[in-house]
Every structure is written in C-alpha cells, then in structure tokens.
Amino acid sequence: MSTYAWIGLGNMGGPMTANLVNAGHTVRGYDLNPQACTAAAETGVQISDSIAHAMAGADAVFTMLPKGEHVRAVYEAQDGGWANATAQMLLLDSSTVDTESSRTLHDEATARGLSFVDAPVSGGISGAADATLAFMLGGAPELMERAQELISPMSGKIIVAGVPTSGIAAKICNNMMLFIDLMASAEGSQLADKLGLDPKVFWEIASVSSGRSWAQQTWYPVPDVIATAAANNNFEATFRVDLARKDVGLALDAGVMTGLDLPAAALASEHFDRLIDEGLGDKDCSLIVKNLVPDGKVRGYTPTNTVPAGK
C-alpha cells in the first residue's frame, strides 16, 4: 500500500481520494475549503493542516486544482511542494492547466532532481466517483510504469500520451471537443423541442445515431431524460460555466500559439461568456441552452441569482 499526499479535495479530488482509501491506501489531504476537508474526512482521508504535513513521507503527491496559477502556488509556496518534495516521491498534476504552467513544473522538477508527470483526467464527477476516469500521462518514459500503478485505483483507462506536457495537451484538445459537442446537444435538444419531438424519444434516437456523443449521453440539457443531467437540478453545477470557459480559453490560447483558427471553440467561449456576464458562472455549463431561446426560458431552469448583463 502507498501513501498519497493530495492537494485539492473539491468535486474531483474528493471522490478520487475516496477511491484510493477504499483500495487500502493512506491519503493525507489538504484544501483551503473547510467543507471540502470535512467531506473528504468522512471518506477516510486524513486531513492535513499544511502542504508540508500532507507531503511528509508520501510516495506520491497529487495536485487537483482549478488553474495553473494555483498549482504553481502550491509548489512555489515557502513551505510548499518544492520545499518538501524528495527524490523518492512521484509528483503528479491532474489539474487542467495551460501548457506553459505544466512545462514550468516539469522543468523545475528536473532541475531539482525530482520526478514529475502531467496526468490530467477525463470523465467528470461521475467518473471520479466510479473510478472510471481516463488518465492522459505526459512525462519521462521511465516514470510511466510507476505512475500507472499509483493511478490505477482511480481509473478506467490510462493512456501514455508522450513526453512532458503531452498529457495536458491531449486534455486541452479533448475538452475543446467536449464543449463543442455540448453545443451540438444544446442546439439539437432545443430544435427537437420546437419541432414537437418528445425529448426522451429524440434522445433515444440520437443515442443510436450519428448525433451521439459523451455530452449527449451524460449532460443532455433537458430535464427528466437522463439521470446525470444538471437540468434535473436547476442546472446546479456538475461542471461550472467559469471552469468550462477557462478550459476553452486554454484551447484558444493554444490555437493562437500554433497558428490555428478554432471558430467552434470561439463560439463555445462566447456562450460561456454570456452566462458569466449574467452572473451564472457558478451554474452548470450545459445552461448554454438558455442562450438559444429569445426569452432565456428553458425547461429545468428557474433563475435564482442573475444580474444584469455586463455588471
């Protein structure tokens, strides 16, 4: 059995650490959110009051945080990651960050004689809870076997993407495709409704036809069609609008860096920006259906915290 230090016990980190505990491993977790710590403690995670305490004697150190700046802050803190890491530890970042942050972490680890792997995931909160996440690994070839062993209790699939930052590059491309697919499900669901189709029947048709996608299967933005849809719960977040916007932004930045035009990703970004401008950044990203109808009234959504656009 291994000892894990885990920094970031939120919607993804919480269930991921629970699966490690269930597999018999020791997990010491750290998070600035007391509610996240309480929830993780109930699953058997040992809560630490500092990054240093969480990392002491750990075999693996995972970060699962919202942005690259947060991951860098964990490592660059006075008594943070770089100050407490040892050559015996494997450092893994499962956050969705920009490639520049990931490159910086890889380079700094190498300069210090440490081992670092970018290990982002796909599968969402449900995949985290069910231990079916797909992990995409980037790093030195000699680290891959060990990384896969440490990741195994949380995963349904582990794919070695390639050299350092390859994992996060794959994740950025994948999430861009996800949100473009979500736009297709949003537009298709609303057009089907306006044409008088039964929502459940149309979903079943799309499920065995060319309109099928992960977003359509998991996040379909109409209530009472699939159990996992945020539309069943007033679009309370399973994947927040502001985080979706962040991820699409990473893809757009990568497009600029590589000289690519990404018009569908840009349109998804505009949809998320509209919701953020209305004060809905904390709602589920599938609420983009609201943007498709002139009065913003869609089934499953009752406004609770909107503010005037641009405020």
Characteristic key phrases:
311 residues, alpha/beta, three-stranded mixed β-sheet, 9 strands, 13% strand, globular
Describe the structure.
This protein has helices spanning 13-22, 34-42, 51-55, 68-76, 81-84, 99-111, 124-130, 144-151, 166-194, 199-207, 214-218, 241-258, 263-277, and strands at residues 3-7, 26-30, 46-47, 60-63, 90-93, 115-118, 121-122, 133-138, 155-162. Helix 1 (13-22) packs parallel to helix 7 (124-130) and helix 9 (166-194) crosses helix 12 (241-258). The chain has 13 helices and 9 strands. It is globular and about 60 Å long. It is an alpha/beta fold.
Q: What is the topological layout?
A:
Blueprint: E1 3-7, H1 13-22, E2 26-30, H2 34-42, E3 46-47, H3 51-55, E4 60-63, H4 68-76, H5 81-84, E5 90-93, H6 99-111, E6 115-118, E7 121-122, H7 124-130, E8 133-138, H8 144-151, E9 155-162, H9 166-194, H10 199-207, H11 214-218, H12 241-258, H13 263-277
Secondary-structure-based class equals alpha/beta
| Molecular shape | globular
Query: Helical content, roughly?
Result: 40-55%
Number of helices: 13
Please report which band the strand proportion falls in: under 5%, 5-15%, 15-25%, 25-35%, 35-45% or over 45%: 5-15%
Short description:
The chain is of the alpha/beta class. The protein has helices at residues 13-22, 34-42, 51-55, 68-76, 81-84, 99-111, 124-130, 144-151, 166-194, 199-207, 214-218, 241-258, 263-277, and strands spanning 3-7, 26-30, 46-47, 60-63, 90-93, 115-118, 121-122, 133-138, 155-162. It has 13 helices and 9 strands.
